[in-house]
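Help needed: design a sequence for this.
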């Protein structure tokens, strides 16, 4: 297994989960409901869990992998390219969270509370 094909680290798993929250928060801030984006569900607000399920749909259709635990670093780049394009087509541009972004957001959230 090459470096590109190594299993995701715990940090990468956490970054993926942070991405789910960023997308959910971003869609909600933009007033984008699940119905507006997917046009197939009853109107509900976005949650981290819904974004995770959306990610899983991309992941499974592209790689036939059900769990993020089965992803390699190469896989995550493949899925993220399509996922982020879809999200951008629905008025929300996102980048994959870096450790610096996660740390800054955590510090900011602590300051707000």
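Sure. Designed sequence:
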């Amino acid at each position: 297994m090459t470096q590109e094909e190594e299993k995701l680290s715990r940090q990468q798993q956490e970054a993926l989960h942070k991405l789910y929250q960023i997308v959910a928060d971003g869609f909600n801030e933009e007033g984008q409901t699940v119905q507006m984006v997917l046009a197939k569900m009853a109107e509900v607000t976005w949650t981290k869990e819904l974004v995770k399920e959306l990610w899983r749909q991309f992941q499974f259709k592209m790689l036939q992998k059900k769990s993020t635990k089965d992803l390699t670093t190469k896989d995550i780049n493949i899925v993220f390219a399509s996922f982020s394009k879809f999200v951008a087509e629905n008025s929300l541009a996102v980048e994959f969270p870096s450790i610096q972004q996660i740390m800054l957001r955590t510090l900011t959230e602590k300051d707000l509370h």
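The longest helix spans residues 10-29.
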